[in-house]
Amino acid sequence: MKNKIVLAYSGGLDTSVILKWLQTEYNADVIAYAADLGQGAELTEAKIKAKKLGAKKIYIENLKEEFVRDYVFPMFRCNTIYEGEYLLGTSIARPLIAKRQIEIAKKEKANAVSHGATGKGNDQVRFEFSYYALEPKIKVIAPWREWDLSSRTKLLEFAAKNKIPIMKHNKKESPYSVDANVLHRSAEGKILEDPWKRPPENVFGISKSPQSAPNKETVITIQFKNGDPIAINGKKLSPFNLLEKLNKLGATNGVGRVDIVENRYVGIKSRGVYETPGGTILIKAHRAMESITLDREEVFTKDELMPKYARLVYNGYWFAPERVMIQKAIDSTQKKVNGRVKLALYKGNVIVTGRQSPNSLYDKDLATFESSNYDQHDAEGFIKLNALRLKKNKIKNSN
């Protein structure tokens, strides 16, 4: 009986070679699966190519709304940023791709799943943690950790030998590696591997440079309900369409470019250049909304939890019990995060210019420098009580 393997398939050189390699190396029927997460690539060509390569069955699925609604928005409720700058565009996509891959494997009674992630990166970890969390007994095949096709030249030779059609842009080696979905576009490797050299402008594929962005502010209003954005400038939009709209607004104004050296989970430092225009706007707006609707200690506690949550997402633990636990705590605060935030987008900047909410805790009568019902004498006891340990510490340790 033949093996049956579900392959996460993109239609590119790597996964096309993998599709044929699995057929020969494992004597397997390969089911090709491609997910549309808003990456902007045409997947029809990938479907035709998979069929030519002998895929037993092909799944091309639109997961754009599910991706934003059930993965991006919950992550952003936590104001999640990895190492101070990265908005986790690649990281958050992997658990959804893996989840659907496992569902297809169960449906097709496949005994294994496979992916095209390399043995040096984070994605192998993210995919496989998700596979095992959802189906502990599944067999995972990671070709890059098994085969001897260790270079692009060898991949092309294998493709030629096995009559694998290669698109023109795949025949010429790209100056960097690109990943994209509706949340972001990333570029890594090759010409970007020297962290001292500034990325050339052609690295950026979706956003204008701040220098060439309009000389006039773009003012927008984002409406939130239960911590999630639901409308832009009063117009309600689906999760995917809302993020896509913010992407266009941000990209036009040079918003969301980041150049960082990050710490991969496997122990390697990696330089990445990211474009996340819509996400950059959204996270700034969400924090502004929380600033008037959450209690001080809720804000502080969320800020303490966020780095832990970010590492869990980055390292592939989306389906881990601790991430689910933190998510429930975060979500319990979001019922009050309702209202509108006004922002100005200008040459790479996202400037909060106003916020209002029916759940606002902001009290102008208390905040004003004019006379109010706040008794300033109350501060004296507060200060003395909280300074007591500081005074004692100084006295005891002054000798």
Question: Can you summarize this structure?
Answer:
The chain is α/β, with parallel strands linked by helices. The protein has helices spanning 13-25, 44-52, 64-77, 93-108, 123-134, 152-161, 168-171, 239-252, 277-293, 296-315, 321-333, 364-367, 378-396, and strands spanning 3-8, 28-36, 57-62, 112-114, 139-141, 177-180, 185-188, 218-225, 228-232, 235-236, 257-263, 269-275, 339-346, 349-356. The model has no long low-confidence stretch (mean pLDDT 94).
Mean pLDDT: 94
CATH topology of the largest domain: Rossmann fold
Give the helix level as a range of percent: 40-55%
Side by side, the strands of the main sheet go 3-2-1-4-5
Oligomeric state of shown chains: single chain
H and E string: EHEHEHHEHEHHEEEEEHEEHHHEEHH
The CA-CA distance between the termini, in Å, is 83 Å
CATH architecture of the largest domain: 3-Layer(aba) Sandwich
Number of strands: 14
Can you walk me through this structure?
The structure is a single chain. The protein is α/β, with parallel strands linked by helices and 399 residues long. It has helices at residues 13-25, 44-52, 64-77, 93-108, 123-134, 152-161, 168-171, 239-252, 277-293, 296-315, 321-333, 364-367, 378-396; strands at 3-8, 28-36, 57-62, 112-114, 139-141, 177-180, 185-188, 218-225, 228-232, 235-236, 257-263, 269-275, 339-346, 349-356. It folds into 2 domains: 3-63 and 90-173, Rossmann fold; 179-294 and 337-356, Argininosuccinate synthetase, chain A, domain 2, CATH 3.90.1260. The mean pLDDT is 94.
